[in-house]
């Protein structure tokens, strides 16, 4: 399996656009792992609706959420990539 392309998110982009873009990338990672939102939610002890809201950009995402999701997907998240 190849690693997905990582593209920097410009800081001048609208926060809503950045949130939606991050959600799209997280969904791609989940799908590359062959996992359902329900499986991810179960592993993280959160609701499936939270995973859905994060992936759809309808909810702000914390650094902890990104770190936890990247851990489930086997991707290294550095502080500079989360900011």
TrEMBL record:
SUPFAM superfamilies: lambda repressor-like DNA-binding domains. PROSITE patterns: HTH_CROC1. Residues 26-80 form the HTH cro/C1-type domain. InterPro entries: Cro/C1-type_HTH, Lambda_DNA-bd_dom_sf. Pfam families: HTH_31. This is HTH cro/C1-type domain-containing protein.
